[in-house]
Amino acid sequence: SSVTHICRDVNYGWIIRYMHANGASMFFICLFMHVGRGLYYGSYTFLETWNIGVILLFTIMATAFVGYVLPWG
């Protein structure tokens, strides 16, 4: 497996793996906080801007799904 190879055979591969996983989690936490801020301040009233943001959110989530879930079978 490529993950096993990175963790075992690459210098500091274990820290690369954990930083990548934690960075991705932090990215999504910041993304959801940004959406929450928009809800709190009523930004959903700007329909065109809000709809573009929702499309971007779904695109990011779909990219994460394709890149993480699908390769595992």
Output the keywords:
mainly alpha; Cytb/b6-like_sf; 3 helices; ubiquinone
Characterise this structure.
This protein has one domain. The two termini are 13 Å apart. With 73 residues, the chain is an all-alpha fold. It contains three helices and no strands.
Q: What is the global morphology? A: elongated
Biggest β-sheet strands, sense, barrel: none
Give the tally of structural domains.
1
What gyration radius follows from the Cα positions, in whole Å? 17 Å
Number of helices: 3
Q: Tell me roughly what share of residues is in helical segments.
A: over 70%
Order of helices and strands, N to C? HHH
- Uncertain stretches: none
Terminal Cα span: 13 Å
**DSSP, total strands:** 0
Strand content: under 5%
Average predicted confidence as pLDDT: 91
**Structural class label:** mainly alpha
Cofactor: heme b
Membrane topology: Multi-pass membrane protein
Transmembrane segments: 21-40, 52-70
Protein name: Cytochrome b
Write the topology of this structure.
Layout: H1 2-9, H2 13-40, H3 47-68
Describe the structure concisely for a colleague.
The chain is mostly helical.
